[in-house]
Amino acid sequence: RERTFIMIKPDGVHRALVGKIIKRFENKGLKLVALKFIWGKEDMFKKHYADLSNRKFFPHLVKYMCRGPVVPMVWEGLHAVEISRVLLGQTCSEECEPGTIRGDFSIQGNRNHPMGRNVIHGSDSVESAKREIDLWFTKDEVV
Ligand code: ATP
Ligand code: MG
């Protein structure tokens, strides 16, 4: 069965959305197989978002992710990666539709945070899911 890596970002935790977000994944029928609550360190987010390291917004992204605790999770189920991306909604505020997590809970887009604060992260492919799960969890932390 497929697994995906999901992380509630600091703004999601700060705004007390943890329960609501978990409920959406449970309602969908995905199975929770790992979860923790941690204050991530800078080097972890640099690794996590390594693909974006040459982008102009990268330092801002890393700083944003370090601002407070996050909730990394692993969810399992048929097409878990793609289904989770649908639950999340688009990256960008104008594009994420009502009914999605980002569409319902986030409105970004000001000069300081063009599209930064979007509540939640989800792996964009099965390969990145594997990489991200290994980065954030040890083998025995995933059931
Ligand atoms: P995530 O990987 O966090 O699930 P995503 O896959 O939808 O988001 P990515 O392109 O991987 O989008 O970007 C990762 C994160 O970097 C975005 O969620 C957002 O917080 C931030 N980001 C992306 N593009 C920009 C941008 N142009 N300006 C500012 N921040 C951005
Ligand atoms: Mg991404």
UniProtKB/TrEMBL annotation:
SMART domains: NDK
Binding site for ATP: 9, 57, 85, 91, 102, 118
Cofactor dependence: Mg(2+)
GO molecular function, one term: ATP binding
Keyword Nucleotide-binding: yes
Source taxon at top rank: Eukaryota
Keywords per UniProt: ATP-binding, Kinase, Nucleotide-binding, Transferase
GO terms of biological process kind: CTP biosynthetic process; GTP biosynthetic process; UTP biosynthetic process
PROSITE patterns documented for this protein: NDPK (PS00469), NDPK_LIKE (PS51374)
Residue ranges of domain Nucleoside diphosphate kinase-like in the record: 1-143
InterPro entries reported for this sequence: NDK-like_dom (IPR034907), NDK-like_dom_sf (IPR036850), Nucleoside_diP_kinase (IPR001564), Nucleoside_diP_kinase_AS (IPR023005)
The protein's Enzyme Commission number: 2.7.4.6
Active site, per annotation: 121 (pros-phosphohistidine intermediate)
Keyword Iron: no
Reactions performed catalytically: a 2'-deoxyribonucleoside 5'-diphosphate + ATP = a 2'-deoxyribonucleoside 5'-triphosphate + ADP
HAMAP family: NDP_kinase
NCBIfam families, per the entry: PRK00668.1
Family, similarity comment: Belongs to the NDK family.
Name by which UniProt lists this protein: Nucleoside diphosphate kinase
